[in-house]
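Listing 4. Sequential folding, example run.
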Amino acid sequence: MTYVVDEKCIKCKHMDCVEVCPVDCFYEGENMLVIHPDECIDCGVCEPECPVEAIFSDTEDGAEKWAEINRKYSELWPNINEKKEPPKDAEKWQNIENKFEKYFSEKPGS
């Protein structure tokens, strides 16, 4: 078991999860974060920290797609181990649906 980040993170990127992760398994894309499944120790401390509920166990229904996305991009994007400020308009993106199809960026974070 591991944890995954889904599309709710896109354009929100609050990073409260990064601050509490004991093993630094988060990776930053231009507009979302992902978790490296081989580095995650399944401690679960990140899940309740996400204000948009974008983190969940890979054993939940529908997690397969997100597990693949998290694995792929955690190999391409830079590791992040310190919390940064979320985008200024993060709040407006919190309840938007189908963000992956419309807004996902493959570019690495800065």
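-- end of first protein; second protein begins --
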Amino acid sequence: MSFPEVEVDGGVLRQVLADDASLMVVAFRFKEGMEGALHNHPHVQSTFVRKGRFEFKMDGKSFTVSEGDSFVIPSNAVHGCVCLEDGELIDCFTPRRDDFL
């Protein structure tokens, strides 16, 4: 199944890659300087940096990640990012983010 790429958050591109009621895989494409606004959600999220470099904030702490890095964002953790170098994030959510469909 092919899902369309949609623009969200000031130019960030989002594309659902796969989904099931219990899991969803989503690609987010950023240009340098774009931001993923601080937010939270009940889903557990795993993020893999496919390319680029990002500064993340999670529950008040900042850290930088780059190509090949991955980390987990717990349920309801407040998080967001700034793209430091054009890049792409691959996020997995459990359960599925029905708001992305």
